[in-house]
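Hi all, long-time lurker, first post. I run a small reading group and we've been trying to get comfortable going from sequence to structure in the token notation. Rather than ask abstract questions, I figured I'd post a concrete chain and ask someone more experienced to write out its structure so we can walk through it together at our next meeting. Sequence below, copied exactly:
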Amino acid sequence: MVERAPGEKFPLPLTIFISELAGTGLLVAVGISMVILNFGRGSPVALLVPGEGFRRIITGFLFGSTGCLIALSPIGRESGAHINPVVTLAFWSLRKIRGVHAFWYVVAQLAGGILGALPLVAWGRMGESIHFGATVPGYGYDVWAALAGETATTFCLVAGLFSFIRRRSIRRFTPLLFPFLYALMVFLEAPVSGTSTNPARSLGPAVVSGQWQAWWVYWMGPVIGSLLAVSAFRFTWLRHMEVEIAKLYHFEHDPHGVFGVRAGSHDKGGRDSSKN
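-- Answer (accepted) --
Happy to help. Here is the structure in token form:
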């Protein structure tokens, strides 16, 4: 445990924020490219795989696989691969990451989402046909249905993530959750809201396409879903399932003491300690 004197400032290791920005940018650039490739007008994939439901499964699996590979990569080793503001929110709510670090993580994620969306314009008309992957309520669904869908899917994401991380026996398999979870969620829920679960993922394509329809849904839904999942792990029978570290993989790597803040580490004297 690393103790700091009252008033001592916490370091802001620049490398973790740059890595988080890069990871989120890659998620958007690669993951949304899969969306465009599978659903953009004129895509050859539609001819090879005419069933829309099957293409949703493929898209979700590839999007989740992108997140999985980022978590396993050197980028994920450095930053913990949250690559989603509401994942950082969930860890912060459980006091596994300090507020100052969480704030700059969210800034890095939103910036990464925008920068990662810029290469999407290279898809041209195919990308334009689906607004470069912008998330909007599906045909026949109103904003409240989309809000419910985003809340439910984000709850599943955060609850699933915590369920893996809190068990030492399966913690190392955490990144493998994402391909299969997103394949299922995109198949079932994408027609309702587009299955964002990530404000940074929605922000980037919105900036590039100018499509801001019901933009608030893709902030409020994920935030509510994340907080509901946190509440389940704090105030129900699941509370015995302690989440020990704010990372998705490379759990042993925390040279700056950023990812292991434990509940109750802030005492009345202002001192803070973290698991190194």
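A couple of things your group might point at:
Residues 14-39 form the longest helix (26 residues).
The radius of gyration is 19 Å.
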